Amino acid sequence: MEKHCEEVVKFRSDSFAVSFGNTFDFDKEEYLNWLKEKIANYPEGFVLAKEDNKFVGQLELSIRKYEDKEIGYVHLYYITPEERGKGKGQELHDYAKQFFKSNNVSEYHLRVSPTNTSAVKFYRKIGMNEIGPEMNGKVIRMRAYL
Asked: Which one, 11, 29, 68, 122, has least CB within 10 Å?
């Protein structure tokens, strides 16, 4: 991850801008420290997808507690704008499901901005359902079962 800091920050920052309309609350150093910790705990939970010598996506996964049970959690599904709609999201999702299965969880969640309508549509397409709003409506928690 160290040698690809520029790419991962760019992808996460773009995701933030698409979700919330700006990057005012995005802190690069805080994000990189958080990501290093996640990768240390779940090395297979971080994927920087590459095709034809070009980075095209990023996936951040972990296992966490939710209402006293272990669940899988998707911190980020990201596909570059020029690669969206070409099936790469499904490829990342297939990887995520395998990661969660290998970590013995049968349920996984994510949170998405309700204004990111294309992401919400994709999540519904892959079988996720809304649980409800969180953070005063800033995000919607969604879940699916394996």
From this structure: 68
The structure tokens 């006293």 sit at 68
Among 3.40.630.30, 3.40.50.11690, 3.40.50.1000, 1.10.10.10, name the CATH number for the domain at 2-145.
3.40.630.30
Mean pLDDT of the chain: 95
pLDDT at residue 2 in the model:
72
Half-sphere exposure at residue 46, Cβ-oriented, CA atoms within 13 angstroms: 17
Distance CA 76, CA 110 (A): 8
- Rounded distance between C-alpha atoms, residue 83 and residue 5, angstroms: 20
